TrEMBL record:
Ranges where the Malic enzyme NAD-binding domain occurs: 238-460
Species name: Paenibacillus zeirhizosphaerae
Protein name listed in UniProt: NAD-dependent malic enzyme
Domain Malic enzyme N-terminal intervals: 93-226
UniProt keyword list: Oxidoreductase
Recorded coiled-coil stretches: none
Protein's UniProt keywords contain Phosphoprotein: no
Length: 473
């Protein structure tokens, strides 16, 4: 089993119970006392003195599944046959597959989809390369490319371990945006090799979604690919995150009655997400942003080897405040965490300004757990699916790519990102807006459509659309 604190919120225990020694009620009470909640029971086999049952048990994050399994093993008359983790079961054999659009039922079909007839289609594309958009998967397919160097907040876990996240992103692309995609995890973390690999695979794709590539390499990789490719290249951890963060902030500020130009924002974690979130806030009119990384506040006057941190120091922190997160958080109106789990304390939030807004977005463990501060923060959000207010780039990338592909945009530019943020923010009406509902759910079917429409319009306005969808002709 994997790390139960990260993923295993629900397990299935297969138990053999000697019913002449112990009854099921006793087994259930031991599991309950160890912190497990039995939510389903399946009887697998039964005889006069013995029964085999599958117990589906859910636990909260703070419960150690090992304690439950030990308690079960220590019961006389009970044998633990097997433990399965529902999350691991869901990943068996991977989460996605390729499906042909039409069946190949006879030789005639075979000769059309494959040789000899396919050759005519190949030659049509050879004569007019643009036809790749109408005659291949390019029109609707995005590559989700990672090098495994900054996977969620798990760090540099490499390309194999990154695959489950990238497969997950592909599922989300399809389910929420109708966009096909391939997860591609590269076995290199060299900037030039990544650029070359992405350029080499680009012909098959209508767009490139870079994912979980650590800073500062992610900036050069994206910048270069944007220049050197004619399809949209979008680093999701930068721009997807920034778009959703901005949408959430627009709505949170309405609740606390503060204006964007007057707030003090502390951004913790000045990597891919932190820099992009700060940039979008600067262009939205936030004047006082203080970025904090492991070495403390980023301030002009300090020397940074990383050119992005140098840029950051020159464009933020107008008062050149120095210090640790604990020190600079005093008086902040907004905390934005895109760093690491558990690094913000209740005491820190207590030192923020009135009606503090806390967006603890590190995954899978947020900078602070909402339950620790729900009585002192005005608005709380995380990146997770199991708390209210999920600020997660999943709310952006399916819709923004849907729009970009539909108008065959050559890039995803600032106008398109701002349009996406506004579409997300405006999905919640003034009447609906409340501290537990500042951002729509990804299951809100209006959102992707709204983002797509606004993104297409912005692409047309800004001159990057290479095809005008019928409804705008
Ligand atoms: N909710 C969402 O939609 C998203 C959340 N994230 C989360 O944000 C975090 C960072 O992701 P990326 O920017 O892609 O990674 P990154 O590796 O580019 O940047 C992380 C930055 O955080 C800093 N950091 C780490 N521990 C810190 C600490 N204790 N104090 C201050 N700074 C610290 C690192 O030095 C680095 O500069 C991850 O936990 C990730 O899961 C990232 C993208 C989207
Ligand atoms: C959500 C996401 O992309 C991340 O945490 O890296
Ligand atoms: Mg990511």
């Amino acid at each position: 089993m994997g790390n139960t604190r990260l993923g295993g919120k629900s397990i299935i225990l297969r138990l053999e119970i000697q019913t002449d020694m112990i009854n099921f009620g006793q087994v259930a009470s031991v599991i309950f006392a160890a912190g497990g909640d039995i939510v389903a029971i399946d009887v697998i086999q039964t005889s006069r003195n013995m029964t085999v049952r599958d117990l589906t048990i859910t636990v909260t994050d703070s419960v150690d599944i090992g304690i439950i399994t030990e308690a079960v093993k220590n019961m006389e008359g009970v044998r633990l046959i097997n433990i399965s983790d529902r999350t691991f079961l869901l990943h068996l054999g991977g989460k996605i597959e390729t499906q042909p659009k039409t069946p190949i039922q006879n030789r005639d079909d075979l000769s059309r989809v494959y040789t000899p007839d396919v050759a005519r289609v190949c030659m049509a594309i050879h004569e007019e390369p643009d036809k790749a958009y109408s005659l291949t998967v390019k029109r609707n397919t995005v590559a989700v490319v990672s090098d495994g160097s900054a996977v969620l907040g798990l760090g540099n876990i490499g390309p194999y371990a990154a695959m489950p996240v990238m497969e997950g992103k592909s599922m989300l692309f399809k389910q929420f945006g109708g966009v096909d995609s391939f997860p591609i995890c590269l076995n290199t973390q060299d900037t030039e090799e990544i650029i070359a690999a992405v350029k080499a695979i680009a012909p098959a794709f209508g767009g490139i979604n870079l994912e979980d590539i650590s800073s500062p390499r992610c900036f050069e990789i994206e910048e270069r690919l944007r220049k050197e490719l004619d399809i949209p290249v979008f680093h999701d951890d930068q721009h997807g995150t920034a778009v959703v963060l901005y949408a959430a902030l627009i709505n949170a500020l309405k609740l606390v009655g503060k204006s964007i130009g007057s707030i003090k924002v502390v951004v913790c974690g000045i990597g891919a997400a932190g820099i992009a979130c700060s940039k979008i806030l600067l262009s939205a009119g936030v004047k006082n942003i203080i970025g904090v990384d492991k070495m403390g506040a980023i301030a002009a006057g300090n020397q940074y080897e990383n050119r992005m941190l140098q840029w950051y120091a020159e464009h933020t922190n107008p008062e050149r405040v120095q210090g640790t997160l604990r020190e600079v958080i005093h008086g902040a109106d907004v905390f934005i965490g895109v760093s690491a789990g558990g690094i913000l304390s209740r005491e820190d939030v207590g030192h923020m300004a009135d009606q503090p807004i806390v967006f603890a977005m590190a995954n899978p463990v947020p900078e602070i757990r909402p339950e620790e501060i729900e009585d002192i923060a005005a608005v709380i959000a995380t990146g997770r699916s199991d708390y209210p207010n999920q600020i997660n780039n999943v709310l952006c990338f399916p819709g923004i790519f849907r729009g970009a592909l539909d108008c065959r945009a050559s890039e995803i530019n600032e106008e398109m990102k701002l349009a996406a943020a506004e579409a997300i923010a405006s999905a919640i009406s003034e009447e609906e807006l409340n501290p537990l509902y500042i951002i729509p759910s990804v299951f809100n079917q209006q959102v992707v459509k709204a983002i797509r429409d606004k993104v297409v319009q912005a692409a047309i306005r800004s001159g990057v659309a290479r095809r005008i969808p019928r409804e705008y002709r």
